[in-house]
Design goal:
Blueprint: H1 2-19, H2 32-51, H3 59-76, H4 81-87, H5 90-94, H6 101-104, H7 122-126, H8 138-172, H9 181-188, H10 196-217, H11 254-260, H12 265-288, H13 299-317, H14 319-326, H15 330-336, H16 345-366, H17 370-393
């Protein structure tokens, strides 16, 4: 079943996020496309169960299909393969005599990572023509292989890090993993589809969405403002120093409100509290003249520092089990090994080391110095730990670390 749905899922993501540049389902912690397909499978499963019980899938099989669809969505979604497909041909297409890219840095771009011949990517941007048989497909072979190798190494490193930290987070710290509650309840039949609360929430969201779609087709129908760009409170505050607060949109996205019910109450409160703190920083900066400094109050830098702090604290708490997994001493390893883990932490540690080294090798072949490559990938995987911790403990709709990167 997963093999049958994977091409459909890939096509859905490619059309909506790649071609239409809409929805961006895969940017959410719980990809909407995988969840919709899981619901469709559950409905189909009820039909199969009524016809022949042996044809129906159990909850574990349904969740396995959902996991496969989710992993595929992460691989090919907006922030991975779709963005990468624009990176590979971009140097050749956007090079011009005005920007002099050819002279400035084309010599530093490896031919096996990007395409520098504009003829090879002409139809990629303009449309028309045939890809296979045109002779230009050969330009894409090496970049496709190289980037695939790097992505595989990255995802193997992510997997090994998750395995190394899972037992600690699940059994010792007992994190709640809130975002997996919905798929589990859907697959196991625990979700109360017929409850009044469910129908009320669904009806409100469906009504808003339906009215706004009808407004798009028939402008005479009123529009319900729920998007961030539809209502900004700063339109009412124009005098200094209050205008330093910046854009303050009042958005009411139904799906975000629904996600909030999965999050711990203290996390929801802190998200709102620190949003106000950020605004107060801007107000204080305007009152004392600090807003004249470039980038003050350094919100992106604060986000990066917070992500690194979360990762460092998570790694420090797990230091004993991580040390045991990476150390050659068998006695230390046996003392810290959890019998509740269904995998070997030693194998996960070895997999991470190999994946990390392969990322370093590919980076150095691409032109990185060894020291820069080590620093880059160390920061990259540290931020990955922070994102994993956020999703395991808080379950936000999106990790929102757009500018927290190496």
């Amino acid at each position: 079943m997963a093999i049958l749905l994977l091409p459909l899922n890939a096509y859905w993501i490619g059309v909506t996020e790649g071609l239409w540049h809409a929805l961006h389902m895969t940017t959410l912690s719980l990809p909407m496309n995988a969840l919709v397909l899981l619901i469709a499978l559950v409905l189909l499963n009820h039909l199969l169960h009524s016809l022949n019980k042996r044809l129906a899938m159990n909850a574990s099989e349904l969740l396995l299909v959902h996991i496969g669809l989710t992993v595929q969505s992460v691989f090919i979604g907006h922030d991975q393969m779709l963005s990468l497909m624009g990176v590979i041909p971009a140097p050749a297409w956007f090079e011009s005599p005005a920007n002099r890219w050819q002279e400035l840095f084309f010599q530093y771009i490896p031919s096996w990572l990007a395409i520098t011949d504009k003829r090879a990517i002409w139809h990629f941007y303009t449309g028309g023509g045939r890809f296979y048989g045109s002779g230009y497909e050969s330009y894409w072979v090496m970049p496709a292989i190289a980037w695939t190798a790097l992505l595989v190494c990255m995802f193997l490193a992510y997997l090994s890090l998750s395995l190394l930290l899972y037992c600690r987070w699940a059994h010792s710290e007992r994190l709640s993993f809130p975002i997996i509650r919905m798929p589990i309840e859907i697959a196991t039949g625990q979700l109360q589809w017929r409850s009044n609360a469910f129908f009320l929430g669904f009806a409100i969201a469906a009504f808003v969405d339906m009215v706004n779609h009808l407004h798009h087709l028939y402008p005479a129908i009123p529009f319900i403002k729920v998007r961030a760009r539809d209502r900004d409170l700063m339109h009412f505050v124009t005098e200094p120093p209050w205008n330093a607060l910046g854009s303050t949109p009042l958005a009411l996205y139904p799906f975000i409100i629904g996600y909030a019910y999965l999050m711990p109450l203290d996390v929801c409160t802190s998200a709102w509290f620190f949003y106000l703190v950020r605004k107060l920083q801007r107000l204080f900066g305007a009152m004392v003249g600090l807003m004249r400094l470039p980038r003050f109050p350094y919100e992106n830098e604060q986000a990066s520092g917070a992500a690194l702090a979360i990762a460092v604290m998570a790694l420090w708490r797990a230091r004993h089990s991580l040390k045991a997994s990476f150390m050659p001493s068998w006695a230390v390893y046996k003392r810290h090994q959890s019998h509740r883990c269904s995998f070997s932490p030693r194998v996960a540690a070895l997999l991470f080391i190999v994946s990390f080294l392969l990322c370093l090798i590919i980076s150095t072949l691409a032109g990185f110095s060894v020291s820069v490559a080590i620093a880059f990938w160390a920061l990259h995987f540290t931020i990955a730990v922070a994102v994993s911790r956020l999703r395991a403990e808080a379950g936000p709709p999106s990790h929102s670390l757009l500018f927290a990167n190496p």
